[in-house]
Specification:
heterodimer, A: alpha/beta, Rossmann fold, 2 domains, four-stranded antiparallel beta sheet, about 40% helix, globular, B: mainly alpha, abc type-2 transporter like fold, four-stranded mixed beta sheet
Chain lengths: ~240, ~400
C-alpha cells in the first residue's frame, strides 16, 4: 500500500509538485494521469526514494520514504521512465544483478530469475546481450529486474511509452496478473484510454496538484462528461494554474 | 559487503566485454610507455654514436692548399671530400642543406703559415640545424687541435717549452654511476606507470558514473534496497582492480622491453630486476585508490560520457605537474615532497632505479599520505552519491 500525504517538491524556481495526496491500496491498480510536466514523474521518484520531498510525507507499507527509505525500497519494485539496461550483459545477467543486489539468497537467484523470465515471456532472448534490443524487449527486461525480488508494491513510470500494440497488450496482462496476486500497482501515463481500461482508481494530476481522484465512472459523474477524454480535459481545468 | 562484491563483479564483467575499455586498460596504457621509451632511447643512442664513432664526411674547398691539415683531419676520423667549386656555391649548398658543414681553405693559406701570421680558415655551417651544429663543432674541435699542434711546434723551434701556453689543464670528472645516468632518462618512466594506471581505470570511472546516468540505468539502480555508499564503493573497487591490472601489465611490459634496449651503450645499467618490479608495484599501488576516486569524483560531476572524457584527460595530465616542476628545478628528494602524491612515487622510483638506498621514512610517508588522500576522496565520492542532483 502506498500513502502520499501533501508532498511538495521544487527544482529551483520550478514548483513541480504542490501538495499531492492520494492512496494506492493493495490488490488494486492506481493510475496517475496527467499532461506532460504535470508532476507525475516527480511524485513517483519521491515514492521510489531517489528524490526527497521538500514538504509532506509518503510511505510504502507504512515505511516512510525518507526516514526508512531502505525498508521502503525493499517493498517496492520501480520502473523509472526510460530505464536503461547494461548493454554488455545478457538479459538474464541484468536481472540476476538486481536479484543479487536485492539480497536474494545466492542459491535461489538462478531459480528466481528463471521464473521471472517465464512470467514476462522473455525466454527467447534471455541469453542475448541487451545491446540492440527493441524498446519492447528492453522494457520487459527492465520490468523483470524490478520485479525479481517479489515486491509488494510496483511503481511504473510511463511503462507503455514506445511500445507497440502487442507489447502494450502483454504489459497490460502482466499488470492484471500483479493485481490478482494482491499487489499494489501504481503507474503513470498520459494516455486516458490506457488508464481507463486498466485502473480501479485514477488520480489526475495537473500543474503539480491533484485535480480529481476517483474511479473512471466517478470521474465521468463529477465532471459531467460522458466521454473520458472530455472528462480529463475538464478535470485539468479545475486546477488553478500557479 | 556482499553488495560491494556484487557491484564489483558486475562492473568487471561488464567492462571486460567492452572492447574500448579493454584496449585502453590492457593494451594502450601498458604498451605506450615501453614503445615511446624504446623510441627515445634508440634515438639518443643513434645521436650520441654519430658524434664519436662514425666517420664524418667533410667537404673541403681548397684542400690542395693545405695537405698537412687534410692529413690531420683524416687522422681524426674525418673523410675529406670534394666541395662545391667556389665560395658562393659552398654558401648556397650549406644554406640548402646539401652539406651540413664545409671547410674553406684560401689559396694564400700556405703562404701565411710560412710567414707566421694567422692564416684564415672558414667553417661554413647552419647553426640553427642541431645535427649540423654538432658536426661543425667536431670540425672546429679538430681545427683547434691542429692549431695547438702548430703552435707547439713553433714554440719548440724557438726553444720555448710549449707548456707555457697551457697554464690550465681542465679535466671533466663525471661522478655519475652507470645506474645514476639511467636515472635521468628512466625518470620519465614513473609517469608512464601512473599514466597507464589512470588509463586502465578511466573508462570504468566514466562508465560507472556518467555512463550509467546517460544510459538511464542509474535511477533504477538507486531505487534498489541498497545504500548508495556501497554501490559507490563497489564501483571504485572495480576501477581500482582495472588500474592495478594495468599497472602490473605496464611494469611487466617495461621489464621485458628494457632487456631489448641497448642501454649499456649509453653507459646505463638501470636497476630493474624482478625484485624492483614487485617493489615498484607496491610503491605505486597506493596511488590506485587516489586515482580511482579522483576520476570517479570528476566523472560524477559531468553530465555526459563525452564531457567526462574531456575532463578526465585533464586528470590524466595532472600527475605530471609536480614531476615536471621538480625535474625542471632539478630538486633532490626531500621529506616534504613525500607528502605529494605522484611526486613521491616518482622520486622514490627514480632512486630505486638508480640503485640508491631508499629512506624507509620517505617510503612510509609516501604510502600513508597517498592512501589518506585517496581515502578522503573516496569518502567525498560517497557523500556526492547521496545528493539527488546526481541524477542530472
Amino acid at each position: 500500500m502506498i500513502h502520499v500525504d501533501n508532498i511538495h517538491k521544487s527544482f529551483g524556481d520550478v514548483r513541480a509538485v504542490r501538495g499531492v495526496s492520494f492512496e494506492a491500496p493493495d490488490g488494486k491498480i492506481t493510475g496517475l494521469l496527467g499532461p506532460n510536466g504535470a508532476g507525475k514523474s516527480t511524485t513517483l521518484r519521491v515514492l521510489y526514494t531517489v528524490l526527497k520531498p521538500d514538504e509532506g510525507k509518503a510511505s510504502i507499507d507504512g515505511q516512510d520514504v525518507v526516514e526508512q527509505s531502505l525498508e521502503a525500497r525493499r517493498r517496492t519494485g520501480a520502473l523509472p521512465h526510460g530505464a536503461g539496461l547494461y548493454p554488455h550483459l545478457t538479459a538474464r545477467e541484468n536481472i540476476a544483478y538486481y536479484a543479487t543486489l536485492c539480497g536474494l539468497p545466492r542459491d535461489t537467484v538462478d531459480e528466481k530469475v528463471d521464473s521471472i523470465i517465464d512470467l514476462l515471456e522473455i525466454r527467447e532472448f534471455a541469453d542475448r546481450r541487451t545491446k540492440g534490443f527493441s524498446q519492447g524487449q528492453r522494457t520487459k527486461v527492465a520490468l523483470a529486474r524490478s520485479l525479481v525480488h517479489d515486491p509488494q508494491n510496483v511503481i511504473l513510470d510511463e511503462p507503455s511509452n514506445g511500445l507497440d500494440v502487442m507489447a502494450t497488450r502483454s504489459l497490460r496482462d502482466l499488470i492484471l496478473k500483479l493485481k490478482d496476486a494482491g499487489r499494489c500497482v501504481l503507474f503513470s501515463s498520459h494516455v486516458m484510454q490506457e488508464v481507463a481500461a486498466l485502473c480501479d482508481d485514477i488520480v489526475i494530476i495537473a500543474a503539480g496538484q491533484v485535480a480529481i481522484d476517483d474511479s473512471a465512472d466517478g470521474i465521468r459523474e463529477r465532471t459531467g462528461c460522458d466521454d473520458l477524454e472530455d472528462a480529463f480535459v475538464e478535470a485539468i481545468r479545475m486546477v488553478e494554474p500557479e | 559487503m556482499r553488495t560491494v562484491i556484487t557491484v564489483l563483479f558486475k562492473e568487471i564483467l561488464d567492462n571486460i566485454r567492452d572492447r574500448r575499455t579493454l584496449v585502453s586498460a590492457l593494451l594502450l596504457g601498458p604498451a605506450f610507455g615501453p614503445i615511446l621509451f624504446a623510441f627515445v632511447i634508440n634515438l639518443s643512442i643513434e645521436q650520441s654514436m654519430s658524434n664519436v664513432e662514425k666517420t664524418l664526411d667533410v667537404p673541403v674547398l681548397g684542400a690542395e692548399h693545405a695537405p698537412n691539415l687534410v692529413r690531420y683531419l683524416e687522422s681524426r676520423n674525418m673523410n675529406v671530400t670534394e666541395a662545391p667549386a667556389s665560395r658562393a656555391e659552398v654558401l648556397d649548398a650549406v644554406k640548402l642543406g646539401t652539406h651540413d658543414v664545409v671547410v674553406i681553405i684560401p689559396e694564400i693559406f700556405g703562404e701565411r703559415l710560412g710567414d707566421g701570421v694567422p692564416a684564415r680558415i672558414e667553417v661554413v655551417s647552419d647553426q640553427a640545424n642541431t645535427t649540423a651544429d654538432r658536426e661543425a663543432r667536431r670540425v672546429r674541435g679538430a681545427l683547434y687541435g691542429y692549431n695547438q699542434q702548430l703552435a707547439a711546434i713553433r714554440l719548440s723551434a724557438r726553444g720555448v717549452n710549449p707548456l707555457v701556453l697551457r697554464p690550465l689543464n681542465i679535466d671533466d670528472v663525471d661522478v655519475s654511476t652507470p645506474s645514476g645516468r639511467s636515472g635521468i632518462l628512466l625518470g620519465m618512466m614513473s609517469y608512464f606507470f601512473i599514466f597507464a594506471m589512470l588509463m586502465g581505470g578511466m573508462y570504468l570511472a566514466i562508465d560507472t558514473t556518467a555512463g550509467e546516468r546517460e544510459r538511464g540505468s542509474l535511477e533504477p539502480l538507486l531505487a534498489l534496497p541498497v545504500t548508495r555508499d556501497k554501490l559507490m564503493l563497489g564501483k571504485i573497487t572495480a576501477t581500482s582492480v582495472f588500474m592495478a591490472l594495468s599497472l602490473a601489465l605496464s611494469l611487466v611490459s617495461f621489464f621485458v622491453a628494457i632487456r631489448f634496449m641497448p642501454l649499456q651503450q649509453l653507459g646505463m645499467t638501470p636497476n630493474f630486476g624482478p625484485d624492483v618490479l614487485v617493489f615498484a608495484f607496491l610503491l605505486l599501488a597506493p596511488f590506485i585508490l587516489l586515482g580511482a576516486s579522483i576520476m570517479t569524483l570528476v566523472a560524477s560531476f559531468t553530465k555526459s560520457y563525452k564531457e567526462a572524457q574531456t575532463w578526465l584527460s585533464v586528470v590524466l595530465l595532472a600527475p605530471t605537474l609536480p614531476i615536471l616542476v621538480v625535474s625542471l628545478l632539478t630538486l633532490r628528494p626531500r621529506l616534504e615532497f613525500m607528502f605529494i602524491p605522484s611526486l613521491s612515487q616518482h622520486l622514490l622510483l627514480v632512486d630505486m632505479v638508480k640503485n640508491e638506498p631508499l629512506d624507509p621514512l620517505h617510503v612510509g610517508i609516501s604510502v600513508t599520505s597517498t592512501l589518506i588522500i585517496g581515502g578522503l576522496l573516496t569518502w567525498l565520492c560517497a557523500r556526492l552519491y547521496r545528493r539527488e542532483g546526481l541524477l542530472g
